[in-house]
Amino acid sequence: MELEAANALANAGKYIGAGLACIGMAGAGVGLGTLFGNFLSGALRNPSAADAQFGRLIFGFAVTEALGIFSLLIALLLIFAI
Amino acid sequence: MCQTIIADVGRARRNCFLLGDHPARQIDEAKLANDPISQFQISKILPMEAMGLDISFTNSSLFMVATVGVSAAFLIMTTSGRGLIPSRLQSISEMCYEFVADLLRSSAGSEGMKFFPLVFSLFVFILMANLFGMFPYFFTVTSHIIVTAALALLVIGLVLVYGFWKNGLGFLKLFVPSGVPAVLIPLIVAIEVMSFISRPISLSVRLFANVLAGHITLKVFAGFIPMLSKIGFVGVVGAILPLGFTVALTALEFLVAFLQAYVFAILTCMYLNDAIHPSH
What we know:
The structure holds two protein chains of two kinds. Chain A is mainly α. Chain A is built from three helices and no strands. Chain A is rod-shaped, with a radius of gyration of 20 Å. In chain A, about 15% of the residues are buried. Chain B is mainly alpha-helical. Chains A and B meet through helix 1 and helix 3 of A and helix 1, helix 4, helix 7 and helix 9 of B.
């Protein structure tokens, strides 16, 4: 009985932890919003220079998005792998 | 009793997620059919063993061979005509070539062009593997961290070897940006070293986690459709919503498939640029 309770508690902790890990994605959301918003405001001011900066935009996107993906990965690991 | 079944399912999931083929996974094939993780299961096609190492030909190997074979065959066949005015297929290959060449030239300079074969192969391999994974019931090679980690370690290893071979100890200037006040140098060096060490990790995890998360999301949303349509007419009508989501997500996944290959290639170019011009 005690073991069962402990198992249930561990399971509950797992799912709560997975949910908490997903909060980290909010940061990536804020970052991506800033990134694309600033790119767009810059690109609308000077459209002729915008195309040349596309690579940098994607680089920033990749680096920012990776952090959100990391927290999602922690959540997935908690649910499926632990 | 209930607990042991749950534990078994958990173990089976864990095995198919981390280890691939394992006797324990045969417990609940039926239960796992609806599991979003089981699509990443590695199964042996040709079991082989050499010197205690498991070198079986698995479904992952099969799709890697298919990826390389299809992309090589496509590129060779479309460019063999060598038309001055390219046919449609030839222009696809040429666009692909130009795209990667521009990418490399703009971020690593003309000196970086000697790495063009590597970057082009990486780009085409990852793109083809991702696109192959978009077919239903196909295995996605890049959804396993071992594959992406091998690719990332290849890139970082090349950067290290080439950087030291070309610049000698001058390569260490990479960790000391110019124009930093002397007081801050120890801190900056520590941060730069940390960021360099985390490069292979972020490079591999980004690709693997993006593909993994995308495929899990697709499967979860697709799973809602039979789940809803079981409950009768209202459910069937309601199932249109997840169906629409699944279609939209599939389109998004095609975008991600291309974007991740592009990101991997552009980051490779930037890291190679560090090896070629460490002091910039």
